[in-house]
User: Which sequence fits this backbone?
C-alpha cells in the first residue's frame, strides 16, 4: 500500500523567516503527482503547490517551493518570507497517474509568530 | 465561480439517526470526491464520481454509507444508523477530468463536521 509520511507534527517559525516541511512517500510506481495542501484553522483546504513526478524541475509558486527528490521519495515544502497568514495545517498528498484517490499524510501544524 | 460548497457545515445527531450531506462542486467539474477526516489525521478517500457514475468506493464506506450524484451535478452522502465512530469532518472535492491518465487538481469544499452523540 502506498503511504505518505510527515514526520513533523508541529513546526513554528518567526515571521519573515524560512521554514521547510518534510514529506516522504512510498510507492513502486514511476508516474504520479505530489501535492501540498494548506488547511487554515476552521477554513477549507486549498492547494499550495503541485509536482508531476516526470518533471525534474522543482515546482515554485511565489514564496512556496518544493525540493522533489524522486529517488529518495522525498517531497519537502519550503516557505520563504513566512507570513502570519501561513499559519495552518499542511498536508502532503500523493496521487497515481491513472487513479483519483488522493493519499494524504497526517499533516504538519505550522505556527507563524510575530 | 464560488468554489465547492457543502451543506450543512455542522451537524449534531444522536446515535442511530440518519444524516445526509450535500456537496455542490465547481460548475464545470465532472469529477466529485468524498473524503473523511478525523481529528489529527489527513483526509481519507471514501468514493468518487465521474459525472453521475460512482466509479470507486473505499472499504471505509460501509453498507450504512451511500453516495449519489443523480444528474452529474451536486452529490449527497447519506449515513444511516449513525454511530459515534462516524464523528468526523466529511470533505467534498471536485476536479475537471479531461480523460486519459492526466489528472487535474482536486479543489476542496469547507467540509461538514458531524458529531454523533
Assistant:
Amino acid at each position: 500500500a502506498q503511504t505518505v509520511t510527515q514526520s513533523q507534527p508541529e513546526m513554528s517559525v518567526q515571521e519573515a523567516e524560512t521554514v521547510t516541511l518534510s514529506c516522504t512517500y512510498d510507492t513502486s510506481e514511476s508516474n504520479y503527482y505530489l501535492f501540498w495542501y494548506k488547511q487554515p484553522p476552521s477554513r477549507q483546504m486549498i492547494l499550495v503547490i503541485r509536482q508531476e513526478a516526470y518533471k525534474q524541475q522543482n515546482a515554485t509558486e511565489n514564496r512556496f517551493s518544493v525540493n522533489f527528490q524522486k529517488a529518495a521519495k522525498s517531497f519537502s515544502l519550503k516557505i520563504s518570507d513566512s507570513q502570519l497568514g501561513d499559519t495552518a495545517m499542511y498536508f502532503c498528498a500523493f496521487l497515481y497517474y491513472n487513479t483519483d484517490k488522493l493519499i494524504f499524510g497526517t499533516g504538519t501544524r505550522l505556527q507563524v509568530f510575530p | 465561480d464560488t468554489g465547492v460548497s457543502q451543506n450543512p457545515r455542522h451537524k449534531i445527531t444522536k446515535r442511530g439517526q440518519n444524516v445526509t450531506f450535500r456537496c455542490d462542486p465547481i460548475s464545470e467539474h465532472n469529477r466529485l470526491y468524498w473524503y473523511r477526516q478525523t481529528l489529527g489525521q489527513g483526509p481519507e478517500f471514501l468514493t468518487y464520481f465521474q459525472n453521475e457514475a460512482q466509479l470507486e468506493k473505499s472499504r471505509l464506506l460501509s453498507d450504512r454509507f451511500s453516495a449519489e450524484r443523480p444528474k452529474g451535478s451536486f452529490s449527497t452522502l447519506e449515513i444511516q444508523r449513525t454511530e459515534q465512530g462516524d464523528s468526523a469532518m466529511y470533505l467534498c472535492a471536485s476536479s475537471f477530468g479531461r480523460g486519459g491518465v492526466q489528472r487535474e487538481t482536486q479543489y476542496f469544499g469547507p467540509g461538514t463536521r458531524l458529531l454523533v452523540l
